[in-house]
Design goal:
The structure is a homodimer of 250-residue chains. With 250 residues, chain A is mainly alpha-helical. Chain A has two domains: 17-90, Arc Repressor Mutant, subunit A (Orthogonal Bundle); 102-242, Up-down Bundle (Four Helix Bundle (Hemerythrin (Met), subunit A)), CATH 1.20.120. In chain A, 68% of the residues lie in helices and 3% in strands. Chain A has helices at 17-31, 43-49, 54-66, 83-86, 89-97, 104-128, 131-150, 155-168, 172-184, 186-192, 198-215, 218-242, and strands at residues 70-73, 77-80. A two-stranded antiparallel sheet of chain A has the order 1-2. In chain A, α11 runs antiparallel to α12. Mean pLDDT of chain A is 90; it is low at 3-15. Chains A and B meet through α3, α4, α5, α6 and α9 of A and α3, α4, α5, α6 and α9 of B. Chain A binds a DNA duplex (30 and 30 nucleotides) through residues 17-18, 42-44, 47, 52-56, 58, 72-78.
DNA sequence: CGTCCGAATTGGTCCTACCAAATTGGTAGG
DNA sequence: CCTACCAATTTGGTAGGACCAATTCGGACG
């Protein structure tokens, strides 16, 4: 029951049939142990193998190409790119959308990036926030209060607060990256807040941060964000101790 | 003569016919002043308008969907998403690939993000670098020395050095983001180093940074990176003073 | 042994045909 | 007059066939 990803409409968690083909191609690549530079089977071959039309294959490959996982060379073939050299952040988002969980290392790296970006970002938010930014933050806080009172899962409110802070930096590049982070950790966040006892503390910390941002105390806001994020990090490390080697729900 | 983007093969700057269609659709959206939530013409209509097959339209839309610019709702239509809420970093990379330059604000934001990520990243690199990381950094330095001696454009060597440092953080999420940054600023970097006098100083700073990273002096390395990036920032601000309101080559 | 030519392969594109679901519009019933 | 229902249209999703141009590779020829 965790996710509910698509933007405009509801459209809950059920997997997309179309992107399912992307997942199957990725699984095929993994199974065949194909690595950087190697060629995939031709489109016609893939179409036959997966029992779909060539159009569907071409669309799936186009998706893989835009996240820089493969390269199409006309009249030659489809080639795997060096994932650790070219892979984009959206390649991870795509995987998460497909239900492939991030592994331990990736989650740790994601947490580290959150600390870097959100702490610095909160500082910028404290310097630059405008009235409409504060309004969005307040709206997120209000929704959070309501969710805590109703005992609902706090995940969506948590995400919206952090995204509102990222927006208050007035840096759209930073906002885009943080946005992707929240798409990457949707399910994990849901599980984190499945324990309803975490929500009230998170809400308290959010309120304190919002006050510092509103007051323009950038340094204090950044410090509060750093402390706030340590809760998540502690949870994750505890989870690793309990079940090492496990995969983390995306 | 600036770019040369695709990974494996050479394939110089000539524009892709296929992604050209993506550019035309984006131009159409811009021209029509379509905004978040609005519906695009149907696939059949777009195909007729642009005088291409429906397949081509579908592939282009698939690309726009993976960078979260549009959403396809089966049996309903194609809808624009809120770009400042959902747009991914790759959406910017896509635009740059298409030859649409970033505007002033976006470049400033990109520079700010570089400062945040690369300064923090260089610190991490100083703490975590392994032998293979240092080898890649050394290789980049060697190529840089050679380029300076030969008087070639330093852009590619500059990018490779920074990417090598980002890789030395051992944080693949950070690496992915920094990687996208360098795809975003390819042309701008080329113009920056068109003045051959900038290369020697950049190379000197790179060497100093590499030494600090090798020595494990994370704080010093981070400080050097901060100073190094200020050259770029100064250049950019100077450029803005000279021709305000202009567009920056992607 | 080297060179050249042609057949097979491959991505790029267009087109036609269907399907299922959503929308829409008109009509019949209350 | 309003509501409820049904049918035609529209829309994205998909399969499959056909052709093009460029690459590739192997065999024939000099």
């Amino acid at each position: 029951m965790p996710p509910a990803h698509t933007a405009i409409a509801g459209r809950i968690g059920r997997e997309d049939e179309r992107s399912d083909l992307v997942a199957r191609i990725l699984a095929f690549v993994a199974e065949r142990r194909l690595t950087s530079g190697e060629r995939l089977p031709s489109e016609r071959e893939l179409a036959e193998r997966f029992e779909v039309g060539r159009n569907a294959i071409r669309e799936a490959i186009a998706v893989l190409e835009t996240v820089r996982l493969v390269e199409r060379r006309p009249n030659s073939g489809i080639y795997l790119r060096a994932v650790d050299r070219d892979g984009s952040l959206d390649a991870l988002v795509l995987r998460a959308d497909l239900g492939v969980p991030l592994d331990e290392a990736e989650v740790s790296e994601l947490i580290e990036m959150r600390r870097i970006l959100e702490v610095q970002g909160t500082e910028l938010a404290g310097l630059r926030r405008r009235d409409d930014d504060l309004a969005r933050i307040d709206a997120a806080l209000g929704a959070g209060r309501q969710a805590v009172a109703a005992g609902e899962n706090f995940a969506a409110c948590d995400a919206e607060f952090h995204l509102a802070v990222a927006a208050a930096t007035r840096n759209s590049v930073l906002r885009r990256v943080v946005n992707s982070f929240y798409l990457l950790s949707r399910t994990r966040r849901w599980h984190y807040f499945a324990d309803g006892r975490r929500a009230p503390e998170a809400q308290r910390q959010h309120e304190a941060m919002a006050a510092a941002i509103r007051a323009g105390d950038a340094a204090a806001a950044a410090g509060l964000m750093r402390a706030h994020l340590q809760s998540t990090e502690a949870y994750w490390h505890e989870l690793l101790q309990r079940q090492p080697g496990g995969k983390a729900a995306s």
